[in-house]
Amino acid sequence: MSPQQPSLTERRKAATQLDIARAAAALFAERGPDGTTAEDIAHRAGVALRTFYRYFRSKQDAVGPLLTGGAERWQALLGAAEPGAPLAGVLERAVTEALSPGDEHATEQLGQTRGLLRAAQDDPALRAVWYRVNQDSEERLLPVLTRLAGDGADPLEIRLAAAAATDAVRVALETWAGTDAPTTGAASPADLAVRCLHELTGGMRLFTA
């Protein structure tokens, strides 16, 4: 079985984790983290409590797969790009596509992210999960950007680019979550992320060469 083709067991595990994550996100939006227990999440997801703890250490950890899904989407878009194209344009297109909901499911997922980020303002453990997801995303971007930048690219510049791209998305989503702006158009996640990306990468040689 190749790495690109997870086994049936792995797919089932990932599906269960995502079901639990969605249940946790919904309950946090309804009751807040303080008003939600691991038992509540397991019950909403239709799994046993022992199954919950097989995958997650805490109720806050349970939302990780939901938050990670967005990062994986735009990393996949970048991974499909061909080396040699201007990196600024490649990143902007990937960020725009990843944060522009193309269907009802994607719109719902953005709404769940907004609810989680609002709940995280008063929950340090939930904020820690969000920061960890972003740190993981930055690390996973490094080999992708290294391939796209090509031979001879400065490793320091690539690391700065990965940090800037990750922070552009993070700041955009956090800013959007604090408003009632729509999921598309002005002040949407995609609009804000592109603005952040321009500000954070404008002086980098990797993006102006």
TrEMBL record:
InterPro entries: DNA-bd_HTH_TetR-type_CS (IPR023772), Homeodomain-like_sf (IPR009057), HTH-type_TetR-like_transc_reg (IPR050109), HTH_TetR (IPR001647)
Domain HTH tetR-type: 14-74
Gene3D superfamilies: Tetracycline Repressor, domain 2
UniProt-listed PROSITE patterns: HTH_TETR_1 (PS01081), HTH_TETR_2 (PS50977)
Record keywords: DNA-binding, Transcription, Transcription regulation
One Pfam family cited in the UniProt record for this chain: TetR_N
Domain of life: Bacteria
DNA-binding region residue numbers: 37-56
PANTHER family the record matches: HTH-TYPE TRANSCRIPTIONAL REGULATOR RUTR (PTHR30055), MYCOFACTOCIN BIOSYNTHESIS TRANSCRIPTIONAL REGULATOR MFTR-RELATED (PTHR30055:SF238)
Protein name: TetR family transcriptional regulator
Source organism: Streptomyces laculatispora
